[in-house]
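User: Predict structure, ligand pyridoxal-5'-phosphate.
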Amino acid sequence: MTWPPLREELQGVEPYGAPQLDVPVCLNVNENPYAPSAKVVADIATSVAQAASTLNRYPDREFTELREGLAAYLNRSGGAEVEYGITPDQVWAANGSNEVMLQLLQAFGGPGRTAVSFAPTYSMYPEYARDSMTGWVAGRRHEDFSFDLDHAAALIAEHRPSVVLLPSPNNPTGTALPHDVIGTLCDLVGDSGVVVIDEAYAEFRREGTPSALELLGAHRNLVVTRTMSKAFALAGARLGYLAAAAEICDALRLVRLPYHLSAVTQATASAALRHTEELLAGVEVLRGERDRTVEWLRGQGHAVADSDANFCLFGVFDDRHAIWQGLLDRGVLIRETGPAGWLRVSIGTGAEMMAFKDALTETLTHLLKEEHR
Ligand SMILES: *Cc1c(COP(=O)(O)O)cnc(C)c1O
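Assistant: Predicted complex:
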């Protein structure tokens, strides 16, 4: 008998952890490299100070003001031509979209039920399934990471999942799902499940790539999750949210912990939403930097997955760990993740990407020399 007396499925398991190392160039967890400006910091601080004067009371359980702000943001986000018509009761939020997705599994998964995704996919999904005692089935994508709808249809018919989880743009590959795939998945799953499209990177998508928000009106089992951690440059605040049918948002009130969103979090996120334009200003710069990084890597002869996100997946290396280590030795931390032989680099500032390119070139040259010795 091991101690402490863990659940069997947790014994010997390592906790989630991209290494949090103190290195000059951190390009490993898809953070936004642009810190909030002094003006935004001051407004957040004022809002938090106001909230602090009422901290003897529990916060608004329904985070009404924040839901209104998030709905308004989503409705503006499609540009002038697109009308999503999302109402505040169709929005839900929690401490990061990770918590939103755990709540979805607590409400719609559970013992005797199954959640499905298609690899390569986000590494946290199987953990939510485990923690909510939901069965977990991972299908696959095509070799080139595009979505294999025939395979997905067969898997859904076989396992009748109550939750389908798919990032779009995908992490770790970076590419978004086409609308017809999402619509077909919603039809296949039907009223016995929910289809969760995790749009953590939506704001970074390339011109012409649509958002699944457009499909909400047509599919009541569709859930679109978003986060303030990436495009909004607010990872430290822990605020994720979703848009879905009001009935789905209502159902999540059954599993959320009492007052799960602190008054401080609500004040911070609402203040940040008042500065949406400024906080998102970095997105345009990062998209450009992303496209140039993809082009440069391809120019160097590497395979690179198309990216709608603020990172790119490149390869294919016989010994990816040696390259990861070589970059780290040169002060650049990237992520060893995804299919064997691939590496993922988050998009940073121009200077950070320069450091990445130099470190990669040096590492590859160095490894080549070693080989020929
Ligand atoms: C970063 C990321 C998230 C965001 O997580 P938060 O808990 O909101 O910080 C969600 N999904 C995917 C696929 C991600 O890569």
